[in-house]
Please model this.
Amino acid sequence: MAAHNESSNSRDKILDAAAALVTKHGVTQLTIQGTADAVGITKAGLIYHFKTRDDLLTALLDRMVAELDAQIGLPAPNDAEPISLRAKMAELTSFTFDMPATQKQLMTNMLAAASTHPNLLPPVQALFTRSYEALDGGPDAGLAQLLSVALDGLLLLELLQLHKFTPDQRAAMRKTVEKLTRDLP
Model:
C-alpha cells in the first residue's frame, strides 16, 4: 500500500506544480519538462504519471472540478442528508465573493484553455449541471437557480475581465443575494 500512497503523493505534487505554473504563466506555458523541473523530478518520472501534456491538463481540470464540487457544497452521491437551499446558496455566495486571487487566476487561465482544448469542456459542463440540479425541487427552486445564475455571471464577468465591480458594488450585490436567500428553506 505504501507504493500507492507514494504514487498518489507524487501525482498530487505534480498537479500542485502544474496548477502553480498555469496560475502564474497560463496554460500555453505548461510543458512536461517545465512541470518536471518545478517538481524536481525527471521528465520520465512525470511521464510515468501523465503521458502527455493534455493528460496533465485534463487531470488538473478534474482535480479542480472535484475541489469546486466540495467548495460549493454539492452533495456527494452517498450523502443521505439533503442540503437546504439556503445552505447551498450560502456556499455559492461565499464561493463567489470570497474566492482567493490565486484561485481566480487559475480559473481564468483554465477557462482560457477550454477555448482551445474543447476536451476540457465536458467536466466543467457537468459541474454546472450538478450545481443547478442541486437547486431543483420545491417552490423556491426558481429563485435559487436565478440567484445561482447571477452569481455565476458575476464570477464569469470578473474571470474574463469584462467588468471590474467596485468594492461597494460587490458589497451591495452580496447583501442583496444574502437578503434574498434568507427566506429559502
User: Anything to note?
Assistant: The chain has one domain: 2-181. The mean pLDDT is 89. The longest helix spans residues 2-25. Residues 2-181 form a domain with the Tetracycline Repressor; domain 2 fold (CATH 1.10.357.10).
